[in-house]
Fold this sequence. Notes:
- The protein is mainly alpha-helical.
- 74% of the residues lie in helices and 0% in strands.
- It has 17 helices and no strands.
- The protein has helices at residues 2-20, 22-31, 38-56, 64-85, 89-104, 111-115, 119-131, 146-160, 165-174, 178-192, 199-212, 215-224, 234-246, 248-263, 268-287, 293-304, 309-315.
- Helix 4 (64-85) runs antiparallel to helix 5 (89-104) and helix 4 (64-85) runs parallel beside helix 7.
Amino acid sequence: MCKTLNIQENLIIIYKEIASHSARITSFSEEWLYDPSVENRFQDWVTSVLIKTETIVINEKSNYHQWKLIMLLLIFKELRKELVQRGFYSFYRRSVEQLLSDMIQSFPSNTISSLYRNVTLQKILEQTGQDFSNVTELKTINEPSLKQEADHDKWINDWLSRPHFSKYKRYYHQLTNEHEKIYLKNEVVENLFPLQTHPPTKRTLFQIYDFHEDFKLGINSWLNYPQDPLYLSREEQQLLSSLTEKRPDLAIPLYSQWIERLVEKKTTQHYKKATLFIIELKNTLKKTDNENDFPLFVTLLKKKYKRYAAFYEELRNYE
């Protein structure tokens, strides 16, 4: 009875917290119509709200992930409602659903299944799944048994001794339960992420990123383990190619950063690679209807690297 009371009390707290952010969510929905940077700012804001959630729920320290997830789902439901009211949701549905999917995947793999243990929380999950029908993480799933998870853990531990992408892909496709697939991917990525200083492991990890089209995790790897962009592995180049094609908005800041990193190496090879990335950046800006930003970018490069004679001469080709 006490546990049920806590759930009801925490839901009241969550709903009150969301109500207090109503104006902010409305503001974001308005900005979604004209500001390309709104997605990243909205994600940062939601993350800060989720962190606060840990401090406001009652007697649920061991289950704060499920309350953070409930908060996330209800915030996105409010955002969707605002966009629907403005008649623009259909235009932004894909980006909103992709962002929700990315944020859900940051939770421990058993968080969604934990909501099925309470009727009220399960109902919120199912209603949100109806609202965001393309977010596979929200589809009704059958929670795997402890034995199934133990079997997966054994396979993962064996596989980690010699990680190989083709074996991972084959095992992944054998799974029919969506939760098991998410569990496998999250566990594998979590274990491989800190091992990226080992080149074969890093190549396997980037193949997994590309297989799942998990571009934000790939970018996170590049940012946390910075390297010379001249020496990207074949697997990293493939992810960059996929990223540029499918999420050009995410590729633009990456190209900008890498161009500067290459120029500062001051070698002919690095200048040539920087020039290729400048061409890619120009094409990518065009895909996102931001090609007018390219001359400004070149102007800033010329100003910053005016003492780099060889590279400065290369930039004359873009005047």
